[in-house]
Write a structure and sequence with these properties.
The complex is a heterodimer of chains A (about 110) and B (about 120). With about 110 residues, chain A is mainly β. Chain A is built from no helices and 11 strands. In chain A, strands 2, 4, 5, 6, 9, 10 and 11 form a 7-stranded mixed beta sheet that branches. A 4-stranded antiparallel beta sheet of chain A has the order 1-3-8-7, with no helix packed on it. By secondary structure, chain B is mostly beta strands. Helices cover about 0% and strands about 50% of the residues of chain B. Chain B contains no helices and 12 strands. In chain B, the strands form 3 sheets. In chain B, strands 2, 5, 6, 10, 11 and 12 form a 6-stranded mixed beta sheet that branches. The relative contact order of chain B is 0.33. The interface between A and B is medium-sized, with 29 and 27 residues.
C-alpha cells in the first residue's frame, strides 16, 4: 500500500513565477492537508481539502490556493512567488472519520525560489 | 492563541543513554497533543498522541510522553536511545472542536546520538 506521495521532489523557480505541487493521499483517505516548513521551523498549516472543498485555512495569503480532485488527490498552487516561499511543502492525508484522525505525511516537495 | 514551545533546538546524547525532549504548549483548554519525528528526506511520522485519559502515553519505537496539565507540558522520553533515533522531533497541538487538519507545531528539536 503506497503511502502519501508528492511530486515533484525538488523544484527551482524564479521570483514572480507560479508553481503547482501535487499530492496523492494514502489509499482510503479522503482528506488532504498542506503544510509549509521553512528551514529550521516546524510545519505551518496552509489549508485542508475534503470533498473537493477547502474546509479550513491557515494564515496564508490568497497567493496560495489549492484544489482537490474526485480521486482525492490534491494540488497546491502558489502565484507570484517570493523568496520567502522557499520551503519544504508537506502534504498529509487522513480519513475524515473523527475529530483528529492520524495524519500521514508525504516526504514533501522542496521549493527553492531564486 | 495556541502555541507550542520546544526550548531545546539541538540535543546530543550518547547511545544507550536516556532521553527527554521538552514541549510546552499554550492553549485555553486541554488540547490534543502529538509528537512527530522527521528523518532527513522523510515526511513526518507520528510517534504518539494524547487525547484524554491516562496522562502517560506509549508510542512507537519505545517512546513515551507524559501530559502534565499543571505545567502545560508534554515531554517525550525514551529510556535508552539508539543511533537510529537521530532525527528531528516535533511537538504539535490540535484544537479540540477544530478541524483535524490544523495542527500547530513547535520549531523542533534536533537529536544527535553519539556512539
Amino acid at each position: 500500500d503506497a503511502g502519501v506521495t508528492q511530486s515533484p521532489t525538488h523544484l527551482i523557480k524564479t521570483r514572480g513565477q507560479q508553481v503547482t505541487l501535487r499530492c496523492s493521499p494514502k489509499s482510503g483517505h479522503d482528506t488532504v492537508s498542506w503544510y509549509q516548513q521553512a528551514l529550521g521551523q516546524g510545519p505551518q498549516f496552509i489549508f485542508q481539502y475534503y470533498e473537493e472543498e477547502e474546509r479550513q485555512r491557515g494564515n496564508f495569503p490568497d497567493r496560495f490556493s489549492g484544489h482537490q480532485f474526485p480521486n482525492y488527490s490534491s494540488e497546491l498552487n502558489v502565484n507570484a512567488l517570493l523568496l520567502g516561499d522557499s520551503a519544504l511543502y508537506l502534504c498529509a492525508s487522513s480519513p475524515y472519520s473523527g475529530p483528529l484522525s492520524e495524519q500521514y505525511f508525504g516526504p514533501g516537495t522542496r521549493l527553492t525560489v531564486t | 492563541a495556541q502555541s507550542v514551545t520546544q526550548p531545546d533546538i539541538h540535543i546530543t546524547v550518547s547511545e544507550g543513554a536516556s532521553l527527554e525532549l521538552r514541549c510546552n504548549y499554550s492553549y485555553g483548554a486541554t488540547p490534543y497533543l502529538f509528537w512527530y519525528v522527521q528523518s532527513p528526506g522523510q515526511g513526518l511520522q507520528l510517534l504518539l498522541k494524547y487525547f484524554s485519559g491516562d496522562t502517560l502515553v506509549q508510542g512507537i519505537k519505545g517512546f513515551e510522553a507524559e501530559f502534565k496539565r499543571s505545567q502545560s507540558s508534554f515531554n517525550l522520553r525514551k529510556p535508552s536511545v539508539h543511533w537510529s533515533d537521530a532525527a528531528e522531533y516535533f511537538c504539535a497541538v490540535g484544537a479540540r472542536g477544530g478541524s483535524q487538519g490544523n495542527l500547530i507545531f513547535g520549531k523542533g528539536t534536533k537529536l544527535s546520538v553519539k556512539p
